[in-house]
Amino acid sequence: MPADTSAPDGSAAPTPTPTPHHPRFAVGVLAFCGVVVAVMQTIVVPLLPHIPALTGATPAAASWLVTVTLLTGAVFTPVLGRVGDMYGKRRVLVASLAVLVIGSVLCAVSSHIGVLITGRALQGAALAVVPLGISILRDELPPERVLSAVALMSSTLGIGAAVGLPVAALVVEHFDWHTMFWVSGVIGLIDIVLVLCCVPESPLRTRGRFDVVGALGLSAALVCLLLAVTQGADWGWASARTVGLLVGAVVVALLWGAYELRVTTPMVDLRVSARPAVLLTNIAALLIGFAFYANSLVTAQMVQEPKATGYGLGASLVVSGLCLLPGGVSMVALSPVSARISARYGPKVSLTLAAAIIAVGYVVRYFTSHSLWLIIAGATVVASGTAIAYSALPALVMRGVPVSETGAANGLNTLMRSIGQAFCSATVAAVLTNLTFRVGGRTAPTLHAYQLVFLIAAGAALLALTVTLFLPGRRTAAAGTVGESRDDRKGGARTITIEEGA
After folding, report:
1. Confidence class of residue 476 from pLDDT cuts 50, 70 and 90?
2. Is 236 helix (H, G, I), strand (E, B) or coil?
3. In this predicted model, which residue has the larger pLDDT, 253 or 406?
4. DSSP 375-443
5. Is the dihedral of CA 100, 101, 104, 105 positive or negative?
6. Are residues 38 and 161 in contact, defined by beta-carbon separation less than 8 angstroms?
7. Are the C-beta atoms of residues 117 and 64 closer than 8 Å to each other?
8. What is the longest distance spanned by two Cα atoms in the chain?
9. How many helices (H) and strands (E) does the chain have?
């Protein structure tokens, strides 16, 4: 897409903006925002078993505290990414954080399940912060710093998920459960202040009108698909509601796609998205999201299973959450390593290596399900592979799309990870509820059920590896790809010139 102002030769020359006061802090601030938003996705998981007693809601209603964040995150991430491309990425990022604060306050002041679900919906919408942050970093940093900064920003999705569970478990055990929402609201306000002080507004804009019909069509298709996937186990996979939603998702998606191909400024540029460099990257993102999420879903539950099962360790809620913490630390440590690999050998090599590491991690988990330390080691290996993968994915996306579409493209890639996580959640639930046995007066999943989950997740990682092998190489990116921005400083102002790649 062209930028706001075009030079005579057709290159974009946006309106100069003042140099930010503290640009060196922008990477850290945006990464912190990403971690906070990602934590919101998992913060209520330890609380779910207690919600019916605390609120008087049914277990089915309580499950919506997780489902609704998945839905709103999936819907708003690509939409707000596009809005950011057109009207200002920092502006939309601040608005997303403000929505998170409002959602946190709603959850903090009420115990009514309807209010809690509404608050969680608002928290989920803030997931757009991650692709918006990636876009700002691409626009603002010199080329030599982009890969490492984007790698860290993308990894915050995994880091937050790993940190959120143990933190939430500690709060649930030692404080009133509303406390974690008050804390998240205060941290959200701090994020807003830091962004306003340290993060510049990107001068790059995409021309045209916002595609309202396209946004509504994409949202409708996603809601139909994700509702069917997340609720299918409760409703029945052959029930009229589930089948109707799946059929509706397909029909709406086809109509939406036909419309998007005809409009001048589409919500999603399907022609760009159909390029092998972009399409295969998004498929790999879906598979990596599936493989990663299984690690988060089953680890805490597995170690909490009673010892009478023959494999369970009877660990407490806090201990089970802490099992994922080393994985979060490894993601922080490995994001710059992934950036260096991508810089030297290309992000395709990084993603291939990452998928192989994830598969190896699940093989380790398959054979080491009786020892706490070996379970932690296997979970950490999976998280390490995920760190490298999440760092490489935005680099692959940015290589295949114009600079002016970075927000929307990274939003779509983040969406694909979320869809992968939704399918993983449904798959894990189906396996663990169908392969069970009676022990100690209760029903528990068998060890084989957990091992089957590990095999399925390893298979998803191997599929991601296979897809990655078909990605174009470093020197064969699609024609018309827009290169990195070049930072020229004249009279204290910043001008970005976009260079068209061959």
Report:
1. very low
2. coil
3. 253
4. HHHHHHHHHHHHHHHHHHHHHHHHHHS-GGGHHHHHHHHHHHHHHHHHHHHHHHHHHHHHSEEEETTEE
5. negative
6. yes
7. yes
8. 77
9. 18, 5
**380 with 54: CB under 8 angstroms?**
no
Residue 501: the pLDDT is 32
Q: Assess contact for 323 and 300: CB atoms under 8 A.
A: yes
User: Helix H segments across 199-239?
Assistant: 212-235
Written as six digits, the tokens of 152 are 């860290």
DSSP letters of 33-90?
HHHHHHHHHHTTGGGGGGHHHHH---HHHHHHHHHHHHHHHHHHHHHHHHHHHHH-HH
Who's near 367: CB < 8 A, 6+ residues apart? none
What's the order of all strands across the beta sheet hosting 17-18?
17-18, 493-497, 486-490
Q: 495: part of which helix (H) or strand (E)?
A: strand 493-497
What is the three-state SS of 302-345?
HHHCCHHHCCCCCCCHHHHHHCCHHHHHHHHHHHHHHHHHHHHH
Q: Which residue has the tokens 């601030």?
A: 29
CB 335 within 8 A of CB 152: yes
Element (H, E) at 487: strand 486-490
Backbone angles phi, psi at 310, to 5 degrees: 95, -15
Within its chain, how far is the Cα of 35 from the centroid? 11
Q: How far is CA 350 from the centre of its chain?
A: 18
Q: Which residue in the block uniquely carries the two structure tokens 């979970």?
A: 379
Q: Are 150 and 30 in contact (CB under 8 A)?
A: no
Q: Which of 149, 129, 177, 132 is nearest to 27 (CA)?
A: 149
Statement: residue 29 has pLDDT above 50:
yes
User: If 0-12 CB within 10 Å is exposed, 13-18 middle and 19+ buried, where does residue 443 land?
Assistant: exposed
Structure tokens belonging to residue 130: 């991650």
The sign one gets for the Cα dihedral 412, 426, 96, 154 is: negative
Q: For tokens 């201990």, what's the residue?
A: 319
Beta strand pairing call for 493-497 and 17-18: antiparallel
pLDDT interval class at 493 (50, 70, 90) = very low
Query: Which class for 159: exposed (0-12), middle (13-18), buried (19 or more C-beta within 10 A)?
Result: buried
How far, in Å, CA of 401 to CA of 411, rounded? 12
pLDDT tens per residue, range 298-320? 887 888 888 888 888 888 777 87
Contacts 24+ apart (CB under 8 A), 95-98: 96/37, 96/125, 96/126, 96/128, 96/129, 96/132, 97/33, 97/126, 97/129, 97/188, 97/191, 97/192, 97/195, 98/188, 98/192
* Prediction pTM value: 0.80
Q: Tell me the average pLDDT of the chain.
A: 82
Measured between alpha carbons, how far apart are the two ends of the chain, in Å?
17
Q: Is the pLDDT of residue 69 over 90?
A: no
